[in-house]
Amino acid sequence: MLLLKGNGLYKTRKFKKPIYIGDPINAVKIFSEKEVDEIALLDIDASLKKTIPNYQLIEDIASECFVPLTYGGGVSSIEQFKTVLSLGVEKIAINSALFLDNNLVEESASIFGKQSIVASIDVRKRFWTYSAYTHGGKVRVKMSLSQVLDNLKSKQIGEILLNSIDNDGTMEGYDLDLIEKVSSNATVPVTACGGCSDINNFRDALKHGASAVAAGSLFVFKGSRNAVLINYPSQSMLNESVFSTL
Amino acid sequence: MYPDVTIVDLGCSNLRSIQKILNRVGSSAFVTSDPQEISTAKKLVLPGVGSFDHAVKQLKQNHLLDSLNYSVLKRKVPILGICLGAQLMSQLSDEGSESGLGWFDFKTISFQTNTFNTLKVPHMGWQEIQIKRKSNLFNNTQDGTRFYFLHSFHFSNDKLDDITATTNYGYNFPVAFERDNIFGVQFHPEKSGRNGIRFMENFTKI
Questions:
Q1: ipTM greater than 0.85, yes or no?
Q2: Across the strands, what pairs with B146?
């Protein structure tokens, strides 16, 4: 899970305090060579500033990427959806536009297939209940998380990308209750994100119903002082510590 | 340098990734929806992100059916269908009501989720494949190699002799088939890291 802000790669904590990591094109090149399973690239400024996707940057990044790539941020029309896919992106994550009164999802699904649409859901705990947020955690969706999940069931989406705002960047582990709640209420695969500190956390999230797991800080920071270092576990390490134990 | 590869533009596909990977393995690749260029192509790729009916309509609107049939069935030009591109080579798809190219007898069907309740669709992610018979596209590729999948429909199982590989997601189903100069795969070699690069290199050498 990589976050874009302007032309740079950043990592947030609780969706705030973005720390500069480096050049996104170079980072994606390294991750692609390390054979990561997938890369998700989210522009955390696009919806907030109501800008269109940064096509040139997406194209430059996609050119270095021989593994599956998801892009999210500022996609609000079918033309934008089509343009981003044509740049070498497999899936588009939609967040703010999910809650607008439009048929972007239905229209995109009828042309590109629902497997190309990821519903990105950002969740924060508020007075002991979970709520979904848009615009980078700044705008609360005015319905309960259960209602949001129910509405998603009738939408033509291929996947849910579930972000815990509270756990983002904390490296204190995934929000397992949240993962369980969302996975048990979803008919599509749920990718869990937010809080992962080591690969043993993957196993926990998968055991609580996630179909896939994502991490940000884990793959860009190293050591107790959080020095920037792009890293990724080997397939054999993942097999040994995660998949063989499920 | 290997012969140029012509990538058929269906208006809705992830063409750039395929062009990039072909360049990476030393082929020049260009994208077209011009029937004339497809009729004279040396090697073809029919890519695939999108929905079945939309893609068939694109083929018809651009008058590509005749030129594809001519190049593939008469001139015997090697063609690789990827994901939806391979599904288009079937007779029909559960995804829509249009007829496919019909080069193979199989149909494109939905995942049988009612018998396997826990199966989440679309099937997405890396999956090991089982190689069923020798294929030049799987040269230097071991049984159990991982490829990337992203699909809601798959090839039906009925024409067994054309099947070169299968995978298991809930149950076994075919993921690669070939007959003479026609090849189709359900996975995305252009997004399967080094395994995909090797696969595409094998295709350029055919």
A1: no
A2: B128
- The catalytic position among B151, B178, B188, B201 is B188
Let me know how long chain A is: 246
**CA distances (Å), origin A116, targets A58, A79, B41:** 16, 15, 29
Q: What is the pLDDT of residues B112-150, one digit of tens each?
A: 876 555 677 788 889 999 999 999 999 999 999 999 998
Chain B interface mutation, best of A32, A36, A86, highest count of B Cβ atoms under 10 Å: A86
pTM: 0.84
Decide if B150 and A90 are in contact by the 8 Å CB cutoff. Answer: yes
Q: Where are the domains of chain B?
A: 2-205
* Mean pLDDT, 10 residues at a time, chain B of 206 residues: 86 79 92 95 89 92 96 98 95 94 94 70 89 95 94 84 93 95 96 94 95
Paired residues of A121 in beta bridges: A162
Chain A residues closer than 8 Å to B84 by CB: 113
- On chain B, the residues whose CB falls within 8 A of the CB of A65 are 17
First vs last Cα of chain A: how many Å apart?
A: 23
Beta bridge partners of B80: B45, B183
| Beta-strand relationship, B153-155 and B108-110 | antiparallel
Nearest Cα residue to B185 out of B48, B70, B73 = B48
Cα A59 to chain centroid distance, Å, stands at 19
* % residues pLDDT > 70 (chain A): 100
The string of pLDDT tens digits covering residues A45-55 is 988 888 899 99
Interface contacts A/B by beta carbons within 8 Å: 93
* Any B CB within 8 A of A35 CB: yes
**Helix count and strand count (H, E) for chain B:** 6, 11
Q: Which three-class secondary structure state does DSSP give residue B172? A: strand
CATH annotation of A2-245: 3.20.20.70
Nearest to B14 among A37, A85, A187 (CB): A85
Q: CB distance A113–B84 less than 8 Å?
A: yes
pLDDT of B13: 61
CATH number of this structure's domain B2-205, picked from the four choices 3.90.1170.30, 3.40.50.880, 3.40.640.10, 3.90.550.10: 3.40.50.880
Q: Quick check: A216 pLDDT over 90?
A: yes
From A184's Cα to the closest Cα of chain B, the distance in A is 11
Which candidate, A44, A49, A97, A32, places its Cα nearest to that of A73?
A44
